[in-house]
Task: structure prediction
Amino acid sequence: MKINLGKQFGRYPAGRYLADGPFNGQKFREEFLIPALKGPDDEIEIDLSDARGLKSSFLEESFGGLVRAGYEADELIRRFKFISRDPSLVEEILEYIRNQDQDF
Amino acid sequence: MVNREWRKVNRDTASKMSRQRRKNRKNVLSKYIPALRYYAPRVVAIDHPDHRSELLEFLTRLRYHYNNKQNIPLVIDFSNTTHFISAGTLLLYAELNRLIAFNNNSVKLRCTEPVNDRASQVLKQIGIYRLCSNRSTVKPTSDDVVHWQVVQGQLVDNSLCAPTIEGFQDRIDASMIDELLGGLGEAMTNAIHHAYDDIRQDGLKYKGSSDWWMFSQAKDSHLSVVFCDLGIGIPTTLPLKRPGIWEKLILRIPTPTDGDCIREAIVEGRTRTGLHGRGYGLGNIVDVVENIPNGVVNVYSNKGRYDSRKDSPYPIDYNDSILGTLIMWNVPMKLLSNRSGL
Result:
């Protein structure tokens, strides 16, 4: 399973909740990540390289929000494979999955 | 005989029409209300304390007019204005938009043009003449004016800002564009989640919508990107939205200034993820310039200010509040080879 964030979802993802704007984290989680996780138990490749301006609100809501929705952090880390020009971006996402925090 | 009567009818009609014209003119004159004139400051800026006070007093007078003298036309007199500095100019533009929305454009707003030609070009370029229904024929031609752009929105939507920021892709690196767009997205998210939670203390008792404004200016070898919201400000939201940070702060500083509050929110946000250059919230916004040599970020909120430079020439606390939050990134640009002769 492959998801190209910039091409399939939006080139400028930002914001957290549905009411925030058109390309928010909740929408990405609900329309792309959760359906992919419900599919066959294999690797999900998430290509971040065509998206611009990725920052914490969108990333935390997309990926940290999966743990809040009941997914196990270990399962997410096992199944997600990220492609990005910026390794710190992948580190940040993994951090949100490992240390999901309701107080953000 | 017939002719004489015909002339009399004509005379009577002419006299009646003349009486009607006089009456109409009198009615028009009785409805005429002279406009009140407000002089804009010579320098529109918020960093230097004197310039800031002049601009904020001017904005207070405009707000008072919109709140209390709605039937009186208003003229902003820019004749003495010679300098528009980006942060102050965006604040002025945002306030005018808010005031126009406040009473649904019912105050007749006009302006007089600056004597200074470049200043006049700026007003044309960013749309203040349009807000004031001024049909100035001035054409923005100065190299440092034609690159001023304003964007306004009410949602977290970077596709609005992207064409402006990506327009500089031949002069700044792709990673810098990424960082600026990321900073803008976080600033929009903060504005929409926190800034408009309560009534702004500007006397209008008007909440308005969650508006934000973005402004970019390419000047010399630097790109300035300024973002502004007219909400309640970081020092007001900190105790309400981040009680943990607030409690830590007041343990160290029992009566923190607005500058202390901004710095605390930034420092906490920068360390929250534990990753270098990848902060959270306000930390993210400041991290935009983390890896950019000579990149500078300023955060103004209410009376406070944060400056990423260690040798900042301006204070971190002022006497007067901008009644909102304004973030300004300043990054160096590459010189274009075909511009070397300019």
User: Anything to note?
Assistant: Chain B touches chain A at residues 155-159, 162, 175, 177-186, 188-189, 192-193, 244, 273-281, 284 (CB under 8 Å). The radius of gyration of chain B is 25 Å. The CA atoms of residues 36 and 74 of chain B lie 5 Å apart. Residues 2-31 of chain B form the longest helix (30 residues).
